[in-house]
Amino acid sequence: MNDASDLLGARHDLALVKLVTPLLLSSTMQVLEIEKSAWPSRGHRLCTLAGYGQNMDNDTRLHVSVLRVTQGCDCIEDTEIICAKILKDGDDSPCFGDAGSVLVCDNKGVAVTSRGIPTTYCDNPHPENSSHTMVGCARKNTYFLFSNLLPHLQWFQDLVPRDALGYLHSKANRHSMKYVQYYDVITSVHLFALLILFSSHFY
Question: Does a structural domain hold residue 145?
């Protein structure tokens, strides 16, 4: 668990978890590479997010949304936070139970879903204000914050042996059925069922 969490818990909302037993790769279960390039100069990106949405409705279907995201947003000028701003009611957004899901841009893992806050946070940016802690799903004037993975690559490398890092993806083809031991990146506060990012030993 990254113990440097701050700024509403979104900057370092990450942990590494090692599975006790190996995972079997298949055509539907694959290694997702972590992005190692700097954020593009154009500012925004269209990225995808998978999750079960409002889990209080007992919906067992996995949903995929396309979000327009930026590094920081408005008053949150922080490159370690990726942000999606919901502009109108009904737009796709993360929902209850989606924390920990991976934000995928250009087929690479870029960030991990942390939390949502209302845009009024910028009027009075004090995390201890309880009115900033709860937001609805698909509600306008909401920021959804994601922990950027790129600034944490050194932290990953410090914790995981170099030969276990999942940067050598050439061994993991789409139809591979080899066993793989991996590390799963999840949030430090929420335990989410989706398998997110893999750093792998191939056998």
Answer: yes
CATH number for the domain that contains residue 90: 2.40.10.10
Structure tokens given for 63 = 């949903």
Domain count, the chain: 1
Distance (Å, whole) CA 11 – CA 20: 28
Percent of the chain at pLDDT > 70 equals 63
Q: Is residue 78 part of a domain?
A: yes
For residues 14 and 6, what is the distance between their CA atoms, to the nearest angstrom? 12
Counting every residue written for the chain, the total comes to 203
pLDDT tens figures, 71-112: 988 888 888 899 998 876 766 778 877 888 899 999 999 999
Range of the structural domain that residue 135 is part of: 31-157
Contact 197, 109 (CB under 8 A): yes
Instruction: Give the DSSP letter of residue 63.
Output: E
pTM above 0.90, yes or no: no
Asked whether residue 2 is assigned to any structural domain, the reply reads: no
CA distance from start to end of the chain: 27
- Residue 37: inside a domain: yes
The secondary structure element, H or E, covering residue 153 is: helix 153-159
Digit-coded pLDDT (tens) for 159-184: 776 555 544 333 433 333 333 333 33
